[in-house]
Amino acid sequence: MTIAGELILEKQTDAILSSDDERRYRCVKWDPFIPCLRCGVCCTRYQVQLNLSEARRICDGLGLSWYTFLGNYIEPRWLGADSFLLRQQDGKCVFLKDTNEPHRTICLIHAWKPWACREWTPSLYRRECREGLLKQWGLMVLSLIHI
Ligand code: SF4
Ligand code: SF4
Question: Is there a single domain that holds both residue 70 and residue 105?
Answer without folding.
Answer: yes
